[in-house]
Amino acid sequence: MTAPIRVLICEDQALIRAGYVAIFNAQPDMEVVGEAADGPAGLEAAQLLEPDVIVMDIRMPLMDGIEVTKRLAGAGAANPAKILVITTFNVDEYVYAALRAGASGFLLKDSPPDELINGVRTIARGESLLAPAVTRTLIGQFAERIRPTAGAPSRQVLEVLAPREREVLGLIAKGLSNVEIAAELVISTETVKTYVSRILTKLDLRDRVQAVVLAYRTGLVEVHD
């Protein structure tokens, strides 16, 4: 029998935290191994418990979720954690920073339970998750940060990709899931997964989240497409 996905909950609101615990513990393939109500506690619990997935609220007392994410999953992390950041529309100014800090994915705080559950499973598998609504908001509100600038990567970095791979990258950047990309291109989801894997390998990207940022910063996809 496969070991359950070990989940750590970092959320300062007790009622919401209890809800997450109940939702995840009710799944046969998940186990909540710890809870934290502030940033330092979350950092300590993550280092001690080494969970498979951390569900991280952005707004945390003492140390916000971005800083915790950076320390656990950023460039300097020896064994980067898999972190699912939970955000709300009124804290969108932090989403771009959390992307750069190393988050594996984002969901909105009002996402239904099945999306949260699937989100944890997706990230546990080593995949990345960007809720389309979060992607659209990120692009819309932070166009100036994402669009090509003098210091942005040149589109030449994308020349290693085949035409179909560029097409898939563009659809990823628009927030489409593998299933949606498969439907758009009339190919199988397994073929999409292969394309995504090749894209990440060729561009030396850690995950799908980084691919979204690169697609916009190189101008492959326009902000107002």
From TrEMBL:
| Alphabetized SMART domains for the sequence | HTH_LUXR, REC
List residues of the HTH luxR-type domain. 154-219
Q: Which residues carry this modification: 4-aspartylphosphate?
A: 57
- CDD domains in the record: LuxR_C_like, REC_NarL-like
Which GO terms fall under biological process for this protein?
phosphorelay signal transduction system; regulation of DNA-templated transcription
State the PROSITE patterns in the record: HTH_LUXR_1, HTH_LUXR_2, RESPONSE_REGULATORY
Sorted alphabetically, the keyword list is: DNA-binding, Phosphoprotein, Transcription, Transcription regulation
**GO MF assignments:** DNA binding
Which Pfam families does this UniProt record tie to the protein?
GerE, Response_reg
Specify whether Transcription regulation is a keyword of the entry: yes
Looking at the record, the residues that make up the Response regulatory domain are 6-124
Which InterPro entries is this protein grouped with?
CheY-like_superfamily (IPR011006), NreC/VraR/RcsB-like_REC (IPR058245), Sig_transdc_resp-reg_C-effctor (IPR016032), Sig_transdc_resp-reg_receiver (IPR001789), Tscrpt_reg_LuxR_C (IPR000792), WalR-like (IPR039420)
Question: What protein does this entry describe?
Answer: DNA-binding response regulator
According to its UniProt entry, this protein's organism is Amycolatopsis taiwanensis
